[in-house]
Amino acid sequence: MRITRIELQNFKPFRKLTLPAASEELPRGLIIVRGPNSTGKSSIFEAILWALWGSGAVEPTNDELINFASSFCDVRLEFDIAGTKYEINRSYDPAKGMSVVLSEEKNGKWNRIADKSQTVSRSMEDILNLEHQQALQTLLVRQGEVALIANATPTVLRDLLEKVYNIELLGEMKKQLENLETNLKTNIDVLENEYRPPEHIREQITNVKKRITQDQRELGKIAKESMKAEALLETLPDPKDLRRATELLDDLRIKEREHERALKSREKELRFAGIADSNPKIIRARLDSLKKENTRLDAERVTMTERSLRIEREIGEHKGILRDIEEKIVELTEVEEGGICPTCQKPLSAHDCSRIVSEYKSIVEAHKTKIGELSREKDAIPDELKEIDDRLRTIPRAIDAASRLADQQREVDDIAAEAEALANTLGSVLKKMNVESVQVLLKKHKVKDILDLQNNIIKLKETLIANKTNIESTSKRIERGKEEVKELEEKQVKMKELGAQIQTIEDLKEHATYVRRKLVSGFIADYVFQKRLIGIIRKATNGYVDAFTNGQYTSIDLEPTPAKGRAGPGLLLRIWDERDKAKKRSSQLSFGDRTAISLGLRLGISRTMSSIRPLKESPSVAPRVRSVLLDEPLGGLDRDRRISVVKNLVNDESFEQIFLITHTDVRGWEGVPVIEVSKSGSASDAILVLSPDI
Fold this sequence. Notes:
The protein is α+β, with helices and mostly antiparallel strands. The protein contains 15 helices and 17 strands. Mean pLDDT is about 85; it is low at about 615-620.
């Protein structure tokens, strides 16, 4: 298989791309795909795989493949197989879905072969002689896959080869045996769910018989208990009388509490009213006194308020006089040799000024003294008003309390009368039960209160009802037990037959497991790998290993390993070190050496897939995938290793075409065709350069 032309439209970063741009075809041999990171190198590989096999061949979803600035994507791929040209055109539109057409060129025209996803897939398998997953593994070496092979365990490496080489015949045989084992296991599980060991059933029979004996003993015990309860119940009072007595007692206690609360409420009102007795005459006298006091205090409060205002005015007048005199004193003291009298405007000598100032100061002191007296008198008024207000607030409450006392006294008397009536009725009920008081009743029946006596009666009645139910259920249980013994004896015979049937199926399952593990799986490891594939892979790989490591490592070997624990049989990769003259495991090599050898092994696998049949029963026509896509395999190699790899791939005639993605500068590819990938803004582009200048 050789890819001759690629056309992309709105595929990931590429808005429109045609390789090669002219009418030529992509060349045979090695083609370098290079460019900076995130420019779209791997997207070209994804376009090839998606065109050939659809969404199952790439990780992104169909929607993620569409360029962010468009609503659909389209890939057209031309390829040549053994001189026959094919074209596959695949497009995707979220609104319309997937569209794919596979065509073959005949006489210069494209003739449609298939135009549905399933028919195109089957046609591709027929053309390539490989199922599409195998063809995908043969064609593509993914980024990081070389490192995965380098670090693979023996089991993982063996599983990889089984998967790549599609050893169908033995795989199907193994699958059939596994299905047989599963079916047998299911049958065994179904039967085992039904199966019970006969000895367990014998134990059940013994236990049921013991239970019947215990039930018969329990039946006699319950009958005796019922007779005793009936005799005791006849000596106890009538439950209706007890219930009536309890109700009367509860009502009497409520009335007593109400009477106590009424007394407390009356005492409280007496305290608020300021009297010691609820006699009507005393109450009326107290009400008259409180109303008179309230009137007096109201008048006294008005008087106090008026006096406060008068004092405040007097203080203001004295302060005004003080201000006038103080101003005059200032005027007279500022004059050194006499001046003008501030009152009569007559001339004054210095002596006269001094005398008048002295008189003014005496007047000032007199006014200040008067202001102090008035202020003290005024300051005392708020306390007096507060006392009056406090008393005025308490008088209405006392009046209200005195007004309510008559009602309070009537309530006390009414409750006392009701309590006396209840006590008389309770005495009549107790007399009916032949007792004088509640205490005598409780002592007679040895209980703390009537509720205990009621509970005793209820328990006795419940015991009789429960015993009757127990007698019925126990009798039925004895009958069921006898029937169960009969059924278990029949089941014991059936389980012996079922056990023999399970053993027969288990023997068959064990035989199927032996055939699958020892014969089929063993044949895959011993014959297919050891006798055929190992030698073929070694032969295809050794040349790559020798060239990629500059002759330090000359050959590889794949040594079968037995199964360990849960891990199945595997293949251990060993490498001959020509320099040290020793065979080494891959884990003993440096990272770069492991990478180079793993790349050689991976190319050897792809190379063998294009030319061999693992078994005689494999398809008679060899696979036709003779191209390989290498996605960044050189990252773990040093400069010399990269040069060796590229030079070898340039001269490798095992493949018709090798695409190698790299962003690493490598010497030794002078003259090798290069697909230069670049990015401008948000879009990418690529061109084919047949003879690049390095």
